[in-house]
Amino acid sequence: MEKTQNNRAWFLVLPVLVLVAFSAVIPLMTVVNYSVNDTFGNNEFFWAGLDWFDEAVHSDRIHGALLRQAMFSAIILAIEVPLGIFVALNMPKKGFWSSFCLVVMALPLLIPFNVVGTIWQIFGRGDIGLLGHTLAAIGIDYNYTSDPFDAWATVVVMDVWHWTSLVALLAYAGLQSIPQAYYQAARIDQASRWAVFRYIELPKMKGVLLIAVLLRFMDSFMIYTEPFVVTGGGPGNSTTFLSIDLVKMAVGQFDLGPAAAFSIMYFLVILLVSWVFYTVMTNLDRQEAK
Amino acid sequence: MAQITLKNLAHSYLPNPKGEQDYALKEMDHVWQDGGAYALLGSSGCGKTTLLNIISGLLRPSHGRVLFGDRDVTDAATAERNIAQVFQFPVVYDTMTVRDNLAFPLRNRGQDAAYIKRRVDQIAKMIGMEAMLSRKAQGLTADAKQKISLGRGMVREDVNAILFDEPLTVIDPHMKWELRTQLKQLHREFGHTMIYVTHDQTEALTFADKVVVMYDGRVVQLGTPEELFETPAHTFVGYFIGSPGMNFLEARVSGTRAMLVSGAGVDLGDDHGTPSGRVQIGIRPEHAVLTEGQGLPVTIRRVEDVGRHRILRAELEGQPFNIVQPEGQPVPALPRVAFVPGKINVYADDWRVAPQGRAA
């Protein structure tokens, strides 16, 4: 039987197309518009070409923010991925405590970002915060509002607290899908605990870990709310990450042209790095299959 | 290598088993000779895998002891027991090459490199994977992976026993036969105790010297293939072994005579006394002969020609009854069936009643 061809079915896609155009494509185009024009208000635009891009590429301020951003993402990935795997390995595999752990682990993920920020902002205060007060009481000089190292530590620990669960839950799902026979075979082969992890658990978790790394990279690279609430990008600009800097530039200083150029490049960088991640990891997969 | 003794062994997966029905394995006492090739045969869910896992130490029995030689290993970990086991579905280490997979159990035991290489090459040759040694195990076909699992199970020479848990399920029929022959040859060469779990009677009968038939958590018979065929100890064995299985007829038995429900008499050839309970006589289809003169009237429903012989699906006394007829013999117009005396088994409540001696 021949299938009836009816191209009018494409009309069904129209509502989505309109919606996406209004919510994403057109706003993005206005950003593009700002990035190649200069404006002094009144909706008057003067062609600026690639000047703003040129300025952004050579701006020390943006370089600094990019460096801090890359450091931040690298640090939290280096902590959250191994820690998440470690937690997943030690979670009970079945029964009441497994459900209990799952619920507790999911809790941080359900808290809105600015609430997480507020929690840690208060938690770390020397006068009323449990953490800040305790540290002060045992004689550790901790002040996240004046010491860049303390500010970094607070922001990193906060992110670890907020997001390690995600890695752990994904890794846990990966672990649960390993058939019992693999562990039995390993016991019969007298494999060490390390060998079981290296040759059974890690390969089976690879798929979900790839997703975990990708998600954590993208999220951490775009992080805004939490450090903004806790440190506001300070002290000085020591915790001013890319998006905080971008908001300062666009909304604080109202430099719409440079900010638009900045955000377009920011978007491209995230896209590029994610693509590189993905390609490298799927290629590794394919090579192994050979 | 060691003789394996199961002493009063029983297992229940429930923490507080109430009655017999709660036991996956009912109490049993068995000795598995060192160097024997055993097949554990039974339908799915009869406790075969449970028993295997108890022997390998993956499962601790809730009752009884397991002995290797004189050593009580009931509480010993799998690694201490020095046993190899091959599972139903292939278990390979995906990220390793085929060579590393085969070498893995030896490396974990700290054997020296030259020995490992020699041994791996030997095993690779046996399973026919010499050409693939440097490939990653990931992406191989299911039967190639299962061959690796088999190879990994056999790579150690000093094991106490090698256990196979339906290892050829995923292998294609041609390869199945070949691998089974290789296993058998390996058994002759090295004399490992081998225990082979299967629900396929051909596999069991061709592989093993001794077949252990399990039914409902119980070992119902341990014997040579011939014993299982000629004198099944339990109706399940009669029904499970042979194709088609044994025919059973309700009867009353006294001495050398059996009386069927219809009142027809059958000469048993041996004196079976007067068993009580539910009494049945069992006749192998191979031991039923079609005649024209004597015997019981039978209705033939269907004839299946399987080459070397024909299977007649018949009806006797209203019950289905199978007869195996040698090639080239005609089906009579008014068929009757006679039984070979001395080849008839008598069962009381499903268990075989041994004859008390030949009648005069």
From TrEMBL, chain A:
It is a multi-pass membrane protein. Residues 66-277 form the ABC transmembrane type-1 domain. InterPro entries: MetI-like (IPR000515), MetI-like_sf (IPR035906), Sugar_ABC_transporter (IPR052730). One of its GO terms (cellular component) is plasma membrane. GO terms for biological process: transmembrane transport. This is Carbohydrate ABC transporter membrane protein 1 (CUT1 family). PANTHER family: GLUCOSE IMPORT SYSTEM PERMEASE PROTEIN GLCT, TREHALOSE TRANSPORT SYSTEM PERMEASE PROTEIN SUGA. It holds the Pfam family BPD_transp_1. Keywords: Membrane, Transmembrane, Transmembrane helix, Transport. It is found in: Cell membrane. It comes from the Bacteria. CDD domains: TM_PBP2 (cd06261). The chain crosses the membrane at residues 12-36, 70-89, 96-123, 151-175, 207-225, 259-280. Belongs to the binding-protein-dependent transport system permease family.
TrEMBL record, chain B:
It comes from the Bacteria. The keyword Membrane applies. Residues 4-241 form the ABC transporter domain. The keyword Nucleotide-binding applies. One of its GO terms (cellular component) is ATP-binding cassette (ABC) transporter complex, substrate-binding subunit-containing. SMART domains: AAA. It holds the Pfam family OB_MalK. Gene3D superfamilies: 2.40.50.100, Nucleic acid-binding proteins, P-loop containing nucleotide triphosphate hydrolases. GO terms for molecular function: ABC-type ferric iron transporter activity; ATP binding; ATP hydrolysis activity. InterPro entries: AAA+_ATPase, ABC_transporter-like_ATP-bd, ABC_transpr_FbpC, ABC_transpr_MalK/UgpC-like, Mo/tungstate-bd_C_term_dom, NA-bd_OB-fold, OB_MalK-like, P-loop_NTPase. Keywords: ATP-binding, Cell membrane, Membrane, Nucleotide-binding, Transport. Belongs to the ABC transporter superfamily. This is Carbohydrate ABC transporter ATP-binding protein (CUT1 family). It comes from Gemmobacter caeni.
